[in-house]
Design brief:
By secondary structure, the chain is mainly α. It has one domain (3-66): Arc Repressor Mutant, subunit A (Orthogonal Bundle), CATH 1.10.10. The protein has helices at 3-13, 22-28, 32-37, 43-52, and strands at 55-57, 63-65. A two-stranded antiparallel ribbon has the order 1-2. Strand 1 and strand 2 (63-65) form a beta hairpin. The radius of gyration is 11 Å and the shape is globular.
Length: 72
């Protein structure tokens, strides 16, 4: 797992029952400066985490951690 994926997982673990938008994840999972330099930094790690089955996505395109992984 990359540092970015790890940061996203830790952020999503903070509210495991809530779906969160990509932009909010990108802004809050790492330092805001990272978001300001590249607002799309979270796109690739989110796709990777989704493909690996660690997170789920709703019909609106928001993400949350899968229940079985919430307590890792």
């Amino acid at each position: 797992m990359t540092d970015e994926e790890f940061a996203i997982m830790n952020f999503l673990k903070g509210s495991p029952d809530d779906f969160v938008g990509r932009k909010e994840i990108a802004r809050k999972a790492l330092k805001r400066q990272v978001f300001e330099e590249n607002p799309h930094w979270a796109d690739a790690p989110l796709c990777s985490l989704f493909d690996q089955g660690f997170i789920e996505q709703n019909e609106s395109g928001h993400y949350k951690i899968k229940k079985s992984d919430a307590f890792l």
